[in-house]
Design a protein that fits this description.
The structure holds two protein chains of two kinds.
Chain A (H helix, E strand, L loop, with lengths): L14 E5 L1 H16 L5 H23 L2 H10 L6 E5 L1 H8 L6 H8 L5
Antiparallel strand pairs in A: 1-2
Chain B lengths: L11 H5 L6 H12 L7 E8 L2 E8 L2 E6 H10 L6 H13 L5 H7 L1 E6 L7 E9 L2 E4 L8 H15 L4 E6 L2 E6 L13 H10 L7 E5 L5 E5 H8 L7 E4 L10
Antiparallel strand pairs in B: 1-2, 2-3, 4-5, 5-6, 7-8, 8-10, 9-10, 9-11
The chains are: A mainly alpha, B alpha+beta.
C-alpha cells in the first residue's frame, strides 16, 4: 500500500489578491466564525487555516520586503493598507464558499484588485 | 553588500538624458567637498600623476586612491547627471561608501549576516560599520595582520550580541528588527537561542524553528512550512535555514 503524496500548500501556485486592512479583517472574521460554528469538512478546515496563516504571512512580508508591494501601490494609487494576500486556487475557493463572507471582501477576492 | 556605487540609480527621465561626466566636473566636486568638514581624520586631496589626476582619500590611517578619470567613467556609466549637483551628490555617496579603516572596524564593527557570493546563494558573517545611517562592510586592508583580523571579528561578534531590537509576533511568525541602527537586524543571530527564548516569552513556541534571513532586512522566524510560504514567490533574495545551522556559518 502506498501513501498518498504529502501535500505541501507552499508548492501550489499562489496568486496575489490585493486586500485592504478592512478586507483582511473581514476574511479573518468570516473564517473564524465558520470554524467556530457548524462542523466544517476537515479538508476545508485545513484550507481555511492556511488562509489564516497567509493573512499573517502577508503582514510579515510587508515588514521584511516592503519595496515590491509599495511599487505596485505607487503605480495603482491604492491605499497604504492594501497588501498582496497570496492564495492557492483551493484556498481561494474555500474562502469564497463561506456564506458569511461580507460582499466587499468577496468582491475584492473574486475580482476587485486581484492581479 | 552590493549596492550602487553612487547611491540609488537615477530615474528614467535622467537615464534618458545622457551626458558625459568629465574629469574637471569631478575635480570641481572634490574641491567643493574637501572644503566641507568631513570629520577629523578624513582628508581628500588630488595629486597629479603620470596617468592623470588621482584622488587620494585618507581616513583614519587607511588610504584609498582612485583616478579621477575612472570615477568620471563610472559616473557616466551609472547615468549620473553631468551637473555640479549631480556629480557632487554622486561623490558624496561614493565617500559615504568608502572602505572602512581597520581601526574603525576594530573599534565599532558589528557582525551581521551577508551574502558570501554575488549570486546571493550562501550566507556568512561580515563585520560592518554603520556610517551616517549606511551599513558599510569592512574588508581588511592589505596591512591588517591575521591576529588583528581575528580580534576585530571577535569584538564584532561581541557587539552583535548586545544590539538592541524589537520582536513582533505576527501569528505564527516572529519578526526581529534592530532598533540601534537600520540594516543590522541579523546581528541577533549570533545568539539565535535567545531569539527563540524571547519568542517563547511572547507566546510563540516553535518546535522546528526556521530562520528567513535577508541581509539588511528584519529576520523572520517560523516553522518550516510557514517559512516556505513566506519566501514563496518573493522577489528579493533570502535564505531559509534551520536555526541550529546558524552556528555553522563561516565568515563572508
Amino acid at each position: 500500500m502506498s501513501l498518498p503524496p504529502v501535500h505541501d500548500p507552499a508548492l501550489d501556485v499562489l496568486v496575489p489578491h490585493w486586500l485592504s486592512s478592512a478586507d483582511r479583517q473581514e476574511v479573518e472574521r468570516a473564517i473564524r466564525s465558520a470554524l467556530d460554528g457548524a462542523p466544517v469538512h476537515p479538508v476545508a478546515a485545513v484550507h481555511l487555516a492556511e488562509v489564516l496563516t497567509e493573512l499573517h504571512v502577508a503582514a510579515a512580508r510587508e515588514v521584511v520586503w516592503p519595496a515590491p508591494a509599495a511599487r505596485v501601490r505607487r503605480a495603482t494609487g491604492w491605499g497604504a493598507d492594501v497588501v498582496p494576500v497570496r492564495l492557492s486556487a483551493v484556498e481561494l475557493a474555500s474562502v469564497l464558499s463561506l456564506p458569511g463572507l461580507g460582499p466587499l471582501a468577496r468582491e475584492a477576492l473574486a475580482g476587485g484588485r486581484s492581479a | 553588500m552590493s549596492e550602487a556605487l553612487f547611491g540609488s540609480p537615477t530615474g528614467l527621465l535622467q537615464r534618458l538624458n545622457r551626458a558625459e561626466v568629465r574629469v574637471p566636473d569631478v575635480r570641481a566636486a572634490v574641491d567643493r567637498l574637501a572644503a566641507l568638514d568631513l570629520g577629523p581624520e578624513v582628508g581628500l586631496t588630488v595629486l597629479d600623476g603620470v596617468r592623470g589626476p588621482m584622488l587620494v582619500l585618507d581616513d583614519a590611517g587607511r588610504r584609498t586612491r582612485v583616478l579621477l578619470g575612472e570615477l568620471a567613467v563610472e559616473m557616466t556609466r551609472s547615468r549620473v547627471a553631468a551637473t555640479a549637483d549631480g556629480v557632487g551628490a554622486a561623490l558624496t555617496a561614493w565617500l559615504a561608501r568608502r572602505p572602512v579603516p581597520d581601526r574603525v572596524a576594530a573599534a565599532e564593527g558589528v557582525a551581521v549576516l551577508d551574502w558570501t557570493d554575488d549570486r546571493q546563494t550562501a550566507l556568512g558573517w561580515r563585520v560592518v560599520v554603520v556610517r551616517d545611517g549606511l551599513v558599510v562592510p569592512w574588508r581588511p586592508s592589505r596591512t591588517a595582520t591575521l591576529p588583528s583580523v581575528h580580534q576585530t571579528r571577535s569584538s564584532a561578534l561581541g557587539r552583535a550580541a548586545v544590539v538592541a531590537g524589537q520582536l513582533r509576533v505576527q501569528g505564527p511568525i516572529g519578526l526581529w528588527t534592530a532598533t540601534d541602527a537600520p540594516g543590522i537586524d541579523s546581528a541577533v543571530l549570533v545568539r539565535p537561542e535567545s531569539l527563540l527564548a524571547e519568542l517563547a516569552r511572547h507566546g510563540l513556541r516553535l518546535r522546528d524553528a526556521h530562520l528567513v534571513v535577508t541581509p539588511r532586512r528584519p529576520v523572520a522566524c517560523a516553522e518550516a512550512p510557514v517559512a516556505r510560504r513566506l519566501v514563496a514567490e518573493a522577489t528579493d533574495a533570502s535564505a531559509t535555514l534551520p536555526w541550529r545551522t546558524v552556528a555553522d556559518l563561516g565568515w563572508a
